[in-house]
Amino acid sequence: MTETKNFINGCYCDSSSGKTFDNINPCTGELIGKVHEASAKDVDRAVRAARKALYGPWGKMTDMERGAILHRVADGIEARFDEFLAAECADTGKPYKLASHIDIPRGAANFRLFADAVANFATEAFQTPTPDGQGAFNVAVRKPKGVIAVISPWNLPLLLMTWKVGPALASGNTVVVKPSEETPLTTSLLGEVMNDAGVPPGVFNVVNGFGPDSAGAFLTEHSGVDAITFTGETRTGEIIARAAAAGLRDVSLECGGKNPSLVFADCDLEKAIEGTLRSVFSNCGQVCLGTERVYVERPLFAEFVRRLAQEASNFKLGVPTDPDTDMGPLVSREHQKKVLAYYALAREEGATVVLGGGVPDVPESLANGAWVEPTIWTDLPDDARVVREEIFGPCCHIRPFDTEEEVIELANDTTYGLAAAVWTENVSRALRVSRQIDCGILWVNSWFLRDLRTPFGGTKHSGLGREGGVHSLEFYTELQNICIKV
Ligand code: NAD
Ligand code: 6OD
Q1: d(CA 322, CA 175)
Q2: Does the structure show a pLDDT above 90 at 1?
Q3: Are the C-beta atoms of residues 69 and 198 closer than 8 Å to each other?
């Protein structure tokens, strides 16, 4: 049994209200442990600690000194790799095979990349003529924004939290993190790593709890917070944007998607099948960048559907520690209920169920877990809710198309604009089509191939702003222009 406390000013502490909530294993439905729910008083203490730490040793360090400490944080994650892996997989149910390749290494990489990036982050300077002929110099300098609230989701807990904490700290800010109530373990463990790496108390704080009337709202509504960075659902993003409006605070929102894959008949079929399998089913479909709408050029349609279903039917569902497990459960019974409601809705809306569509047979010991079958549908109308709404489960709808114009229109017929994938061996077509898709992140002949220096974010209901590389550093810093008269 774990006991997860809040981490404030370098110390683990109980909730001042004495309130705790359950942390449940999604594979079995069993209790993993108790989590201390931060009260408004606890959140206030965390924000004050973060404010004070801005003016302590952290605020006086050079970028290089802070960078060296953040490399030690990355070292610490790597040294305790197995603990992070076990904690992440216990919280989420995801396979060790996946988390050991993606989630935990990225937890370290997010610190290393931004620790180094700040050293090469230049500002602008101008020589300005003046009437006396002496001139002036204008130089822009960057400063940390201050106390950053980081609100993170449950699907890639360590990866997505450090994706924000890394650049925020590298830029000299301090942070208060509110991890998802479903997955508090790795964020909590990071507190120990921060202390061991020599991060001064108050620079990294963690408050646990829920959204409304709990730690999430207490934090985002706190006037001591200078900027908010959020990853999660679009509806929550809207609430957070309203909270940020008070005091005109900056906000970065990475939200949901209903991402299309466009498969042309001239693609490399093996690669398109392999990539689409990953983009639909990785992490049990709980990836914001994942594909839920697949459009296949008509001559390839029947073969593509058959092959995708055949490959997905071979997935081995199981517990995280089994090296053969391809897919775990969903994150919770509540999320399972939501995904199964969409599975039922698909049938009501007239889908042909090509694969899955229900709850798999699992051993008795896993019967209370959040299991769902990998699922593929065809034949839904374009206005079906299943084709329009983000499900966030291991499922997709496949539809044939005849022309480039048609598939571009179909791909863009959504309120979201996060990611897309285009599969074709024709480079001209790849570029022509890609530029017409309204989304922030587009992969050609690949999916989730990440370079952390690239802009990351969505259009329309998928978010606001860009993070990644220089864009993260821009968000986490304030520019000040200094004009010096000679
Ligand atoms: P969510 O919006 O329910 O929760 C995200 C976080 O916000 C949690 O920590 C939650 O406690 C907190 N929260 C909820 N209500 C709040 C409130 N009123 N005030 C302050 N905080 C509040 O999202 P989720 O269910 O954890 O994650 C799944 C969603 O996240 C999906 O929609 C997915 O597409 C999206 N997502 C987007 C990206 C991206 O980069 N664009 C990445 C991962 C997940
Ligand atoms: O790779 C990343 O940096 C990132 N933000 C991934 C988001 C995945 C969504 O579930």
Answers
A1: 36
A2: no
A3: yes
Residue type, 135: G
Give the pLDDT confidence of 276-314 residue by residue, as tens digits: 999 999 999 999 999 999 999 999 999 999 999 999 999
Pocket flag, ligand 2, residue 284 (CB < 6 Å): no
Tokens at 197, concatenated? 């790496």
Task: State the closest ligand 1 atom to the C-alpha of 154, by its place in the atom list counted from 1.
Answer: 26
**pLDDT of 258:** 98
Is 393 touching ligand 1 by the criterion CB < 6 Å?
no
Which residues touch 86 (CB under 8 Å, ≥6 apart)?
A: none
Are the C-beta atoms of 268 and 248 separated by less than 8 Å?
A: no
Amino acid at 481: N
Closest ligand to the CA of 103: 2
Mean pLDDT across 211-220? 98
Burial (Cβ within 10 Å: 0-12, 13-18, ≥19) of residue 245: exposed
Q: What are 419's two structure tokens?
A: 């990611």
For residue 187, is pLDDT > 90? yes
The predicted-structure confidence for 395-434, as pLDDT tens digits, reads as follows 999 999 999 999 999 999 999 999 999 999 999 999 999 9
- Transcribe 387-443 into DSSP letters: HHS---SSEEEEEEE--HHHHHHHHH-SSEESEEEEE-S-HHHHHHHHHHS--SEEE
The b-or-e profile of 96-109 (16+ CB within 10 A means b, else e) is: bbbbbebbbbbbbb
Compute how many other C-beta atoms are within 10 angstroms of the C-beta atom of residue 219: 30
Which of 97, 86, 81, 84 is closest to 284 using CA atoms? 97
How far CA 452 is from CA of 112, 348, 458, 472, in Å, comes to 10, 42, 16, 10
Tokens 């508090």 locate to 184
All structural domains of the chain: 2-255+462-485 (3.40.605.10), 259-451 (3.40.309.10)
State how far the Cα of 375 lies from the Cα of 309, in Å rounded to an integer.
Answer: 8
Q: What CA–CA distance (Å, rounded) separates 425 from 25?
A: 43
Q: Quote the ligand 1 centre to 479 CA distance (angstroms).
A: 29
Pairing between β-strand 416-417 and β-strand 459-460 as defined by DSSP bridges: antiparallel
Alpha helices per DSSP H over 221-323: 234-245, 269-281, 298-313
**Collapsing DSSP states into helix, strand and coil, what is residue 296?**
strand
The stretch 369-379 carries a mean pLDDT of 98
How many Å apart are CA 277 and CA 308, to the nearest integer?
Answer: 7
Mean pLDDT over 352-373 rounds to 98
**Per-residue pLDDT, 331:** 98
Two structure tokens written together for 125: 């300077």
Tokens of 40: 């408004």
Residues of 177-209 as b/e, b for ≥16 C-beta within 10 angstroms? bbbbbbbbbbbbbbbebbbebebbbbbbbbbbb
Q: Which atom of ligand 1 is nearest to the CA of 418?
A: 41
